[in-house]
């Protein structure tokens, strides 16, 4: 596991550039026992060529058998022990849309969902309603008033929104309402410690009123709250790593986790091409870039194996333009696995490649799960990757005499 205090002591400035490419939910599973995973099925000549010049392996996001959320998966890639720095997704969503989150605010990531006549969830994402429809529903939910607190309801993207409570004596340590499966009713918010009980009651009151207001809406006639938390105040990456850090991501949550870690979030468009253009335009301004590709995860959650393959192939076609910029160290991996056959995040290790001028290449010639299992990196943790990249970039001085 990475020791941020040790890295802070050893980090030095320089001119080298580190590029971390995160293909969200990259890891997959075969549809049949002998078949390929999504990554192995994809035609990826450029990723394969880069893997052949790299050292490869498999990486554990949090711990063996633990299926991570996107927040822990990304924080681990940035070098933060996700078991030490637990971040609620509500905080990440709020920061990702530029909300002015205060230290005592409680933030929750909201999902519109579809409920049947018995109050059971039939679609956890309300059919991925358009962002414009989500914004209209958020305006409707702003009617709700709670005693003694201000409430803010802000649209994020598609079926996602942010709920923020602002007031005195609010506490986190609260359960989520999403049962993570269909055919179940939304759960109540429960306090995980006694002092959070009043906040849980406020949130349950808000949810009851929200479901009343949404009752006639379809497909978004219900909602759930996830990642209910406060901003924990992380050590900042520029201070720890002595890097000027830029983040390029199309989805607010990932912009939020980057901002929380101290990166400068760069405005970009909706496509991977837009992100490459943003990277090119800002290449001279930063030492470290976090480059995020979202739809590998979305297609996995949809259970669409072929569509996830297409996203991987789409990125592969653009990889030469990225490498032409001349990074000194490149990491390609995912934050977690999202196998299409599973339709959800899973605990499976992630394939990872690490390229740099001083790499000892292994014998891996294809970027895929099974080839990477035999790679020279072996089986490591996400938190090991950025310190390794710092070493290969010449950004860490000697430890000890």
Strand content: 15-25%
Shape: globular
Q: What's the tally of helices?
A: 14
Q: Report the radius of gyration as a whole number of Å.
A: 21 Å
The CATH architecture designation of the largest domain is 3-Layer(aba) Sandwich
CATH topology of the largest domain: Alkaline Phosphatase, subunit A
Largest sheet: 8 strands, mixed
CATH superfamily of the largest domain: Alkaline Phosphatase, subunit A
Total discrete domains: 2
Structural class: alpha/beta
Instruction: Determine the mean pLDDT.
Output: 96
Termini separation comes to 23 Å
Percent of residues in helices comes to: 25-40%
Low-confidence stretches: none
The succession of helices and strands, N to C, reads: HEHHEHHEEHEEHEHEHEHEHHEEHEH
> What is the number of strand segments?
13
What does the model show?
The structure is a single chain. The protein is of the alpha/beta class. The chain folds into two domains: 4-87 and 234-392, Alkaline Phosphatase, subunit A (3-Layer(aba) Sandwich); 92-229, Alpha-Beta Plaits, CATH 3.30.70. The chain is built from 14 helices and 13 strands. The protein has helices at residues 4-10, 38-41, 45-52, 70-77, 89-96, 131-141, 197-214, 237-241, 252-260, 272-281, 295-301, 305-323, 369-373, 382-392; strands at residues 18-23, 55-60, 106-115, 121-123, 150-157, 160-166, 222-229, 245-248, 264-265, 288-293, 329-333, 350-356, 378-381. The strands form two sheets. The protein has an eight-stranded mixed β-sheet with strand order 9-8-10-1-11-12-2-13, with helices on both faces. Strands 3, 4, 5, 6 and 7 form a five-stranded antiparallel β-sheet that branches. Helix 10 packs parallel to helix 12 (305-323) and helix 11 runs antiparallel to helix 12 (305-323). The chain is globular.
């Amino acid at each position: 596991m990475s020791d941020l205090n040790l890295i802070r002591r050893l980090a030095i400035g320089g001119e080298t550039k580190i590029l971390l490419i995160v293909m969200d939910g990259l890891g997959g599973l075969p549809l049949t026992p002998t078949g390929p995973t999504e990554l192995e099925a994809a035609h990826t000549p450029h990723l394969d060529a880069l893997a052949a010049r790299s050292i490869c392996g498999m990486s554990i996001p949090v711990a063996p058998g633990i299926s991570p959320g996107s927040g822990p998966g990304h924080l681990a890639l940035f070098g933060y022990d996700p078991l030490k720095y637990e971040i609620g997704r509500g905080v990440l969503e709020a920061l990702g849309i530029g909300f002015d989150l205060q230290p005592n605010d409680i933030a929750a990531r909201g999902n519109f969902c579809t409920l049947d006549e018995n109050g059971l969830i039939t679609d956890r994402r309300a059919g991925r309603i358009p962002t414009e429809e989500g914004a209209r529903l958020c305006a409707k939910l702003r009617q709700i008033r709670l005693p003694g607190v201000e409430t803010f309801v802000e649209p994020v993207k598609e079926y996602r929104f942010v709920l923020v409570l602002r007031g005195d004596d609010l506490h986190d340590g609260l359960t989520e309402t999403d049962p993570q499966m269909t055919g179940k009713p939304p759960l109540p918010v429960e306090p995980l410690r006694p002092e959070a009980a009043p906040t849980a009651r406020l949130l349950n009151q808000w949810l009851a009123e929200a479901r009343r207001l949404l009752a006639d809406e379809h497909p978004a006639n219900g909602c759930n709250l996830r990642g209910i938390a406060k901003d924990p105040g992380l050590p900042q990456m520029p201070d720890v790593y002595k890097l000027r850090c830029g983040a390029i991501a199309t989805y607010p949550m990932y912009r939020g986790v980057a901002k929380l870690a101290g990166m400068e979030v760069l405005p970009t468009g909706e496509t991977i091409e837009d992100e490459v253009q943003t990277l090119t335009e800002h290449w001279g301004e930063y030492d470290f870039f976090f480059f995020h590709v979202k739809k590998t995860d979305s297609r996995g959650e949809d259970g669409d194996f072929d569509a996830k393959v297409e996203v991987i192939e789409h990125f592969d076609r653009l990889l030469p333009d990225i490498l032409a910029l001349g990074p000194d160290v490149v990491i390609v991996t995912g934050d977690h696995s999202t196998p299409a056959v599973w339709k959800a995040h899973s605990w499976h290790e992630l394939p990872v490649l690490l390229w740099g001028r001083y790499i000892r290449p292994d014998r891996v010639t294809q970027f895929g799960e099974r080839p990477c299992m035999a790679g020279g990196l072996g089986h490591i943790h996400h938190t090991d990757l950025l310190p390794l990249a710092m070493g290969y970039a010449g950004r860490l001085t000697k430890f000890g005499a």
